[in-house]
Amino acid sequence: MRADTEAIARLIRGNGGLEIPSSGTSMRPLIRKGDRCRFVPLTGAPCLGDILLVAGADGRLVGHRLVRVDGTGEASLYICKGDSNIHADAPVKLNQILGKLTEIRKIRFVVQADGGLARWWGWLLVRWPGLSRVTRFYLRAERRLRRKRSGRAASRESSSAHQLQEAGYNHPPEGKKRGFL
């Protein structure tokens, strides 16, 4: 998503937060496509494991987890990474961070980003970076299984239609209705 980062930063500061729909898969399984993510202004330095809204060099907004901080003070560089990404994003400075995730609105419930399982998941990902590889493997397997299932369903439908044709049943011509006896 390309955006005017200054306008978004003003909206977040002025309204005390901003809700943005998720559009990618890099933060799965915690954040799915279409979940509404609420970002609030950053107060103080971000902590490892926080999910930050960052303005990329190309103008895209990215919500990824802070996994490392290089340097101290004004010279600090913040390295973020998607939970299911293998590699980290390019380092950003504090002025490129627009906000911090506080909650994720899913279809049936709301997840607080600073507590419970979400905080625990972030802690695990920061301490064991290899967990992202496991997550990536799981997501690929899930995608393959979904494609396989949808392929089987499509082949069953075409197989059923073929069996009906062999049995002598033909669909009525387009525009004609079939009557009941």
Record the SSE blueprint:
Elements: H1 5-15, E1 18-21, E2 36-40, E3 51-55, E4 61-70, E5 77-81, E6 97-105, E7 110-112, H2 116-127, H3 131-166
How do you describe this structure in short?
This protein is 33% helix and 23% strand. With 181 residues, the protein is an alpha+beta fold.
Radius of gyration: 23 Å
Helical fraction: 25-40%
Main sheet properties? 7 strands, antiparallel
Strand percentage: 15-25%
Number of helices: 3
Structure description:
It is a single chain. Helix content is about 35%, strand content about 25%. The protein has three helices and seven strands. A hairpin with a 5-residue loop joins strand 3 (about 50-55) and strand 4 (about 60-70). Residues about 175-180 have low confidence and may be disordered.
Q: Which descriptors apply to this entry?
A:
181 residues; disordered C terminus; elongated; single chain; alpha+beta
